[in-house]
Amino acid sequence: MNDHYINALSLDESAPVHDKIYKQNESKFNFLKTILSKRSETLYKIINMIITVQYEGILNNNQLKYRPLTQNMVAENINMHPSTISRGIHSRYIQINHTLYKLSDLFVQPYNSTISTHHIKHKIKYLIKNEPFRNPFSDDTLVSYLKGEDIFISRRTVAKYRKELQIKNCNQRRAIYKEKDAKK
Fold first, then answer.
1. Which of 11-20, 21-30, 63-72 has the highest average model confidence (pLDDT)?
2. 58, 124, 139, 154: least buried by Cβ within 10 Å?
3. Is the pLDDT of residue 123 over 90?
4. Exposed, middle or buried by CB within 10 Å (0-12, 13-18, 19+), for 9?
5. What's the rounded Cα separation, in Å, for the pair 59 and 41?
6. CA angle, corner 30, sides to 28 and 35, nearest 5?
């Protein structure tokens, strides 16, 4: 964080200290400096919590190792309102080991206490990437494969995640595969 500027702030020392306007401005200045310090302190608390939870994922620069983390979880842990967390991470970045992270990207929606939705989406993407070209997996087939890995989600949820990943359904993928095969 670039908060070194807070301590560098100062009033114009050439102004007369007994001046009424100086006294008013000094009060406003001290208030501003206090607010900036509190804001910085809040951001440090938020970042500390995020890094504590996402340590393994950040250390390995691997999103699959991110643990479920929500703004509400951080808010409860540091005794603040979730809206404060939201404002604190909005358009903020942190650099760790020469990698720049957007703070909001370090929040991962939990599917349950151990698996994140990001992890499930990655599994779906992996299954589709490795599917047989002649017989693409339907959403029901993907549900079956995920059940084999102890991930119990509905077909509608698989379809929703697949759409979020911008992956076409099995019939559309089959048509694309046939078209590519015909060009060969």
1. 63-72
2. 154
3. yes
4. exposed
5. 24
6. 95
